[in-house]
Write a structure and sequence with these properties.
heterodimer, A: 271 residues, alpha/beta, Rossmann fold, 7-stranded mixed beta sheet, 10 helices, 44% helix, B: 94 residues, alpha+beta, N-terminal domain of TfIIb, 18% strand, MenG (chain A), EC 2.1.1.329 (chain A), 2-phytyl-1,4-naphthoquinone methyltransferase activity (chain A), methyltransferase (chain A)
């Protein structure tokens, strides 16, 4: 029922940014890692190897459907240049690759080196030649390293809930989208329905955490409940997208209300 | 608006293709980057920072960058227009 792995993989994004972490590097003639980044690297090393397997286990394969829906909502099509923000181990990027085909281009961006290494090794272990159109970039979602109006579509899978500054991320996404193009952001749904909320919490407590505990990752997955509580409702996400500069925004609930997908259009769209 | 073209991205070991460098900008200044094969990095002349490329993956998190000191800067060209990128690439590779 959830993409716990992607969420856990994005744990580092909830940690507050240290001074200078998103600003000009401070060391001269040598690189100095921020301590927080080191801690995040250790976390990702621990979680990364089980990501994909736990995804399938916990969602009984349902996460694949939600991700395909997210791709459809993005409007990505053959020949497009597309971006997947918070790409993790690459699930959405691979789906985008199939969608845009060999004449298109896919860029997968993530904060985590280890996640990207797994994504890259998955890419090279696949026999599908269309995956050659994927490029991986280590980057921060709040400081996207792309020019304005670069992409025909952008997707974010289980990343928006975990970033430090959601408004800034959406502003950046809006900036790099071509006018008239869309962002499709899939994530847990913070429901306003008490029954849905209770069911979601029950699933985390009695299904997700015990399953994660098998791998010694119970604490990492307990984080899910708090992060969903701190997330925004569908209506709040729509408002956030409009504040970020999108001309229209709509949030769709999926997975029986457990998941949600925000779709927003950059100005310039002509229906 | 950039044109990606139909050229496949090319990776040569830990190197970086020029095609990839053309779609990227400095995450802080949003200005173009140039490839420096000598240091296997992407240079942001606008703010004097270099970003590493490891295993073919550019590391463009701002904290991954390092300030280019004066000696390194004097060996680099500060121009950032596309034509200058090609000249800088050649100079850096020599």
């Amino acid at each position: 029922m959830d993409n716990a792995i992607m969420s856990a993989a994005s744990l580092h994004r909830t940690l507050p940014a240290l001074p200078g972490q998103h600003s000009r590097p401070v060391s001269r003639s040598k690189t100095r890692l921020v301590r927080c980044s080191n801690e995040r690297q250790v976390l990702f090393d621990r979680i990364a190897p089980v990501y994909d397997n736990l995804n399938d286990l916990l969602t009984v394969g349902q996460h694949r459907i939600w991700k395909r829906m997210a791709i459809s909502w993005s409007g990505a099509k053959k020949g497009d240049n597309v971006l997947d923000v918070c790409c993790g181990t690459g699930d959405l990027a691979f789906l985008l690759s199939e969608k845009v085909g060999p004449t298109g281009k896919v860029v997968g961006l993530d904060f985590s080196k280890q996640q990207l290494l797994i994504a890259s090794s998955r890419q090279h272990s696949q026999s599908k030649t269309c995956y050659e159109n994927i490029k991986w970039i280590e980057g921060n979602a709040i400081d996207l390293p792309f020019p304005e109006s670069s992409f025909d579509a952008v997707t974010i899978g289980y990343g928006l809930r975990n970033v430090v500054d959601r408004l800034k991320v959406l502003e950046e996404v809006c900036r790099v989208l071509k006018p008239g193009s869309k962002v499709s952001a899939l994530d847990f749904n913070k429901s306003t329905n008490p029954f849905s909320t209770s069911f979601q919490e029950w699933m985390i407590d009695y299904v997700v955490v015990p399953a994660a505990d098998i791998y010694g990752l119970a604490n990492e997955y307990r984080y899910l409940k708090r992060s969903i509580n701190e997330f925004l409702t569908g209506k709040e996400l729509e408002r956030l997208a409009l504040n970020a500069g999108f001309c229209s925004a709509k949030h769709f609930e999926t997975g029986g209300g457990l998941m949600g997908n925000l779709v927003a259009v950059r100005y310039g769209y002509i229906p | 608006m950039l044109r990606f073209g139909r050229v496949l991205f090319k990776e040569a070991g830990t190197g970086i293709s020029k095609t990839l460098s053309e779609i990227l900008v400095c995450p802080l200044s949003k200005q173009p980057l140039r490839v420096c094969e000598k240091t296997n990095s992407l240079i942001s002349d606008s703010i004097g920072v270099s970003y590493p490329v490891v295993d073919g993956i550019p590391r463009l998190v701002p904290s991954d960058g390092k300030i280019i000191d004066d000696e390194e800067a004097s060996n680099s060209n500060s121009a950032v227009d596309p034509d200058a990128v090609k000249n800088d690439h050649q100079r850096c590779s020599s």
